[in-house]
Amino acid sequence: MAESQKSPDAPQIRPGFAFHYETDDHLFFVASDFAQPDVLILSFTTVRKFSDRSCVIQPGEHPFVKVETCVAYNFAELQPSGAILEGIARGTIVPYAPLTPELMNRIWDGASVTRHLPLKCRDLLNRQGLT
Question: All domains of the chain, ordered by start, with CATH?
Fold first, then answer.
């Protein structure tokens, strides 16, 4: 959809756009260029003993984060951009406070060092110059 054709109610979707699925209590967020056909989706999870600590977020760094949290790079997935827009329109995807640019930079830094990010996701970030 061309920029001028977007609904005035359409959310601004860019890296850091955060959301949750109506049936899930994890926070997900866009981590790549949304203008592309496929978009990288990452999520947060509570830090546990064996968690990937490539990017740890402390309470207060985002309104969703109440305990020490990390990016779950191992659960990264590519989704069609259109599926995100459809989910928002249907109400199955609920927008949340966006991540700050500073936090996104830390997440991309973590993506460049973690061994848990799937190769196809790493390749997408590299092609877009984000890692």
Answer: 13-127 (2.30.30.110)
